[in-house]
TrEMBL record:
Xref: SUPFAM superfamilies: Sigma2 domain of RNA polymerase sigma factors, Sigma3 and sigma4 domains of RNA polymerase sigma factors
Domain named RNA polymerase sigma-70 region: residues: 14-77
Protein name as catalogued: RNA polymerase sigma-70 factor, ECF subfamily
Gene3D superfamilies: 1.10.1740.10, Winged helix-like DNA-binding domain superfamily/Winged helix DNA-binding domain
One of the protein's GO biological processes: DNA-templated transcription initiation
Presence of the UniProt keyword Transcription regulation in the record: yes
Keywords of the record: DNA-binding, Sigma factor, Transcription, Transcription regulation
Domain RNA polymerase sigma factor 70 region 4 type span(s) in chain numbering: 127-177
Molecular function, one GO term: sigma factor activity
């Protein structure tokens, strides 16, 4: 049985795909205006790349793959603008204990019930605020790895960081999120 060849219909992209692409983007970028810009850029790039469309994937799948590249490019651009210096604020930086936790900065334990409460709208608002308060690089890496579920290798390649640096950033982001959540949610 021959596989169905998909076709492109750019005249209906906005009507059929704009909301879906916007919602996909806003979940990864968390900036309304930027999300709209990235969707527009995706449509424009799609128009320019129409000759490359082979019809093996659906139109929406093809547009999403373009959008993913746009999102990665956005994060790469931020990374290159911001510098690559990392502040070693939670770990010993030299001596026998290098890389170990500084005891007073180790994260406190959370109750396992927290995972069940994530569904709560108020908790989501506080969590999103805490994610938004992370240093820009931490937020970028945390969103790409934890929320968008990009592969470690892909993030490292796109942001020009090592996998060990990525995991340090993830760990520090989680530690800061935990502290923020403890201060803004669990003490209420």
């Amino acid at each position: 049985m021959a596989q169905k060849k998909h076709t492109l219909n750019p005249d209906k992209w906005v009507q059929q795909h704009a909301d879906y692409l916007f919602n996909y983007t806003i979940g990864r970028i968390n900036n309304h205006d930027l999300a709209k810009d990235l969707v527009q850029e995706t449509f424009f790039a799609g128009l320019k790349a129409m000759d490359n469309f082979q019809g093996l994937a659906s139109e929406r799948t093809w547009l999403i793959s373009i959008l993913k590249r746009k999102i990665i490019d956005y994060y790469r651009k931020i990374n290159s603008i911001k510098g690559k210096a990392e502040v070693k604020m939670n770990f010993y930086s030299d001596g026998e204990r290098e890389g170990e936790w500084i005891e007073e900065r180790a994260p406190a334990n959370w109750n396992n019930e927290t995972d069940k409460n994530i569904e709560n709208k108020e908790l989501n608002l506080v969590l999103e605020k805490c994610i938004g308060n992370l240093p820009e690089k931490y937020e970028m890496v945390f969103r790409m790895k934890t929320i968008q579920q990009f592969e470690t290798e892909e993030i490292c390649k796109e942001l020009d960081i090592t996998s060990s640096n990525l995991w340090v950033i993830i760990h520090r982001a989680r530690t800061q999120l935990r502290k923020c959540m403890e201060d803004n949610w669990f003490k209420n």
